[in-house]
Amino acid sequence: MRKIKSSLAGSKYIGTLPKGCDLCIKGLKSVLFVTGICAVNCFYCPLSSYKKNKDVVVINEVMVKKDEDVIREVELCQSKGVGVTGGDPLLRLDRTLHYIKLLKETFGKDFHIHLYTYGILNEEKFRDVLGKLEDAGLDELRFHLDMESKRNWELVGIAASYAFDVGVEIPCIPDKEDYIKEMVHYIEEAGAKFINLNEFEASELTVDEILARGYELNYDEFNTIAGSYELGRKLMKYIAVYTTKLSAHFCESYVKEYYQLRNRMKLRAESIKKPYEKVSEEGWLLKAYVYPKEGQSLKELKEELQKVLRASPRLFEIDEKRGVVETSDKLGQKASKFGYKVELVWELPAEDRFIMQVEPLYGVDG
Q1: pTM of the full predicted structure?
Q2: What pLDDT score was predicted for residue 363?
Q3: What's the pLDDT score for residue 257?
């Protein structure tokens, strides 16, 4: 029996953890969504309504209008690679090749790029595409193999002869145990390096279809499907016993939220934080809002706070839109004790700086 090991996130893997997964867990991968167009309509597709079937380019939820948007986001997140996804990136091949080349030219050959695809069923066309991906510098190709037919399975063997690593990524659908076991043996023989097993989740667009097919929700914070976790653990044990060279990784839902996303957000927060902002454990930006007294201008409030709190001007900033003076959480707490109306605010370190949490401070008398 091969050894089942634990990643930094506690997820289980056999063999070698795919480099794309290793970087994702550390928050060092950005997600480059190159199109929402796809040739298939999988009932478990997790795309949101604003992406599915929409021909848009998004990186980490930032709409891309020019190349500089992609470069800037990668730099802000301190990413060491990107995952190119969709839809199916191969349906917008020129666009996909452009971004692969752009990223390699900008950040160097060691910048790791993996790509998700269903593949192209015409072998001649597919080989032509694979050659172009190889020339562009792709590091890792991940197949979304069909979970209801085997029509794209043979593409794994075709792709395995190229320079990039080839793997498979699928959801652990509870009643597909025998199907997935057959897939495991097929892809190992075909030359795949790894299989990524994702805990099965429902999304806004898939939940009705998933329930209609008889699956049940766990009703947890990730909307996972009952039985998926248990199947994932069972499949890992099976792979440990019945394979010899195929690497495998069971990616539970919490890994994406608490490691991949949170770690990436922390890195982005460190890049964009203002002198008075603090990065929280969740990866949010913590600061304080101080509100002016009746008839007081924000400029007057800022100057007054500098004197009352005896702090540097760089630790205060006027926000005209919200009608507050921003400062650090500690200075905000001091200001509340002097009778100012103050709120502690946690913002998401995204482009829109969405407010995640607000906590009023009540000063001495609160």
Answers
A1: 0.92
A2: 66
A3: 85
Range of the domain at 127: 4-268
**What pLDDT digit, counting tens, does each position of 15-72 carry?**
999 999 999 999 999 999 999 999 999 999 999 998 999 999 999 989 999 999 999 9
CA distances from 330 to 85, 96, 301 (A): 42, 46, 17
The length of the chain is 366
Average pLDDT over residues 159-163: 97
User: Based on the structure, what is the number of domains in the chain?
Assistant: 2
Number of H helices, E strands in the chain: 12, 17
Helix (H) or strand (E) holding 363: none
b (16+ CB within 10 A) / e for 26-38: bbbbbbbbbbbbb
Give every CB contact of residue 348 below 8 A, 6+ residues apart in sequence: 265, 284, 285, 354, 355, 356
Closest by CA to 291, choosing from 356, 341, 233, is 341
Place of tokens 């992406």: 51
Could you tell me if 206 and 226 lie in one domain?
A: yes
Tokens 């949490």 appear where?
A: 357
Q: Are residues 258 and 305 in the same domain?
A: no
| Residue 326: C-alpha distances to residues 143, 233, 285, 343, 350 (Å) | 47, 48, 12, 10, 18
The residue type at 51? K
